[in-house]
Amino acid sequence: PTDNGEATVLQAGKHEFPFTFQLPETLATSFEGKHGSVRYWVKAKLHRPWSTVKKAKKEFTVIEPIDINTPALLAPQAGAKEKLARAWYCNRGQVSVTAKIDRKGYTPGEVIPIFAEIDNCTSRAVVPKAAIIQTQTFIARGTKKQKKSVVTSITGDPIPAGKREVWHGRALKIPPVGPSILQCRIIQVEYSLKVCVDIPGTSKLLLELPLVIGTIPLHPFGSRTSSVSSQYSVNLDWLSTIPEQLE
């Protein structure tokens, strides 16, 4: 029918009708996870007299704009932790770690410089590591399920007993991953940087710094662009390549 409700007769042949829809600005990024997904599609139906209804469906990808050029995401992140080693074979002493990164927000492909100091006051060598961790949270019927995965990691050299190791901007590159999903009620995707120290005979020393993976990259000179899709693309196959734990 036309806009005034009158029927239109289509002659035999090919006909094209353009449709446009204004998407809400609050849509979450398309996502495929173990316990849930965020998917979008458009459907079309063709009703014909005395015949079955023809249907068509086409999926499309949505990318939520996350601008890392905001004060909250440009703020440096830092922390410190220590652990007392007590092992049956007398590996005694304390291990401490302090770590800092320049900002909270990054985009895929960027390198995170890690500044850290690890003091090994035990009687055996310890091994420092750093990793980007992705945490998927699925919320349904009042319950939560989580899946933690290692996105990428690096391992430092062993630190001998009584020695200190300093990382002067140790590089950790972010691979192609989906952005953070923080505003969805049922699915959340969060990231963090974990700096850990393997200590013989006891549990690891873990220091966690929050990360946000955005879609609009850093603009050093304050320039802006309205085109998110030209700066960022989502690969929905990345989930299958991520190991599930830091070894």
TrEMBL record:
Domain Arrestin C-terminal-like: 91-218
Pfam families (UniProt xref): Arrestin_C, Arrestin_N
SMART domains named in the record: Arrestin_C
InterPro entries, A to Z: Arrestin-like_C, Arrestin-like_N, Arrestin_C-like, Arrestin_domain-protein, Ig_E-set
Example GO BP: protein transport
Any Gene Ontology CC annotation: cytoplasm
Family affiliation: Belongs to the arrestin family.
This protein's name: ARRD2 protein
Source organism of the structure: Spizella passerina
UniProt gene name: Arrdc2
